[in-house]
Amino acid sequence: MSQATLDDDELFTEAASEMREDVESSLNAARESLPDAETVWEVDAENTLGVLNALRSALDVGDARDDLRDAKKWFTMGEKADAFEDAEDLKAEIAEVEDLIADIEDASEQVGDLTSTVPQLKGALEDADEDAAEA
After folding, report:
1. With a threshold of 0.70, does the pTM exceed it?
2. How far apart are CA 52 and CA 55, in angstroms?
3. pLDDT tens by residue, 20-70
4. What contacts 24+ positions apart, CB below 8 Å, involve 8-14?
5. How far is CA 57 from the centre of its chain?
6. pLDDT tens digits, one per residue of 117-129
7. Domain boundaries defined on the chain
8. With contact defined as beta carbons under 8 Å apart, do 131 and 98 qualify?
9. Could you give the CA distance from residue 30 to residue 85 in angstroms, rounded to a whole number?
């Protein structure tokens, strides 16, 4: 084997290691951007709408989606280059973070729907109470 080939193999191994580190780093950043469980669970508000608004704010995924995209980009590149000896753990972590983000975004959307529905419901109930009082 020529010296150039040996150097190329060493460079490839080094690049593969760095690529794996990039994927892991991006996944860690994505996880750190996800909402904290206590922030989602503990809410301080005086009424239902306040609770819903606080919850919707708590369900912000921040930069997690961008960090996940970076992880997937580097993972895809490494996988296509056959740079990873074992990529199953990375693939599983990517899927887990992707599922978490999707669940949080779904919950945020549901809370958003309730945020617009609850005031309408309150108004309708107040109107019904007024009608009952007049009758």
Report:
1. yes
2. 5
3. 999 999 999 999 999 999 999 998 889 999 999 999 999 999 999 999 999
4. 12/83
5. 14
6. 999 999 999 999 9
7. 3-134
8. no
9. 24
